[in-house]
């Protein structure tokens, strides 16, 4: 029971234990980080896994020599892209099944068509922006699959979102993560990143109201 509690604590607070894991597992740390990011973006049931903070702290540790920043970014981008692809495929598989329940009050063909229309029109920016929003980045590709967003369009914005998310946060940690003020206010820094990423959503909402 004690080992299980320790394992859960490491998974839920991986960013705090990352330095220890780098020392213990060496090159295998890349596989561990791949698995975490892949799971966080690939399964609807695991949105609680660390994302933003993990990328930031991983970048900071790379700056100290714990990992190669180039390899780290490549591995994490691959994990983010493949995770979203899996989530999309799951949604695409389940969507037609649940939305064809004609007797259901909520899951019906009309709802499916509306979801499809939304993701064909706004799905690109939704996928990119959601990368920076906890919970949203886990559900966005799943809903894109349910709405049958075209695969080529999804793939393009999936790649753009993964590069933007992993690249920006990991490099931010690499260049600024070891500053004393940042280390003492890591939570505030991550929240600041989330607030900044919400600005386009807020602007879009205002434009929609004016229209």
TrEMBL record:
Residues 49-174 form the VTT domain. Keywords: Cell membrane, Membrane, Transmembrane, Transmembrane helix. It holds the Pfam family VTT_dom. Belongs to the DedA family. It is found in: Cell membrane. The chain crosses the membrane at residues 27-49, 55-82, 156-176, 188-206. GO terms for cellular component: plasma membrane. It is a multi-pass membrane protein. It comes from the Bacteria. This is DedA family protein. It comes from Candidatus Propionivibrio dominans. NCBIfam families: PRK10847.1.
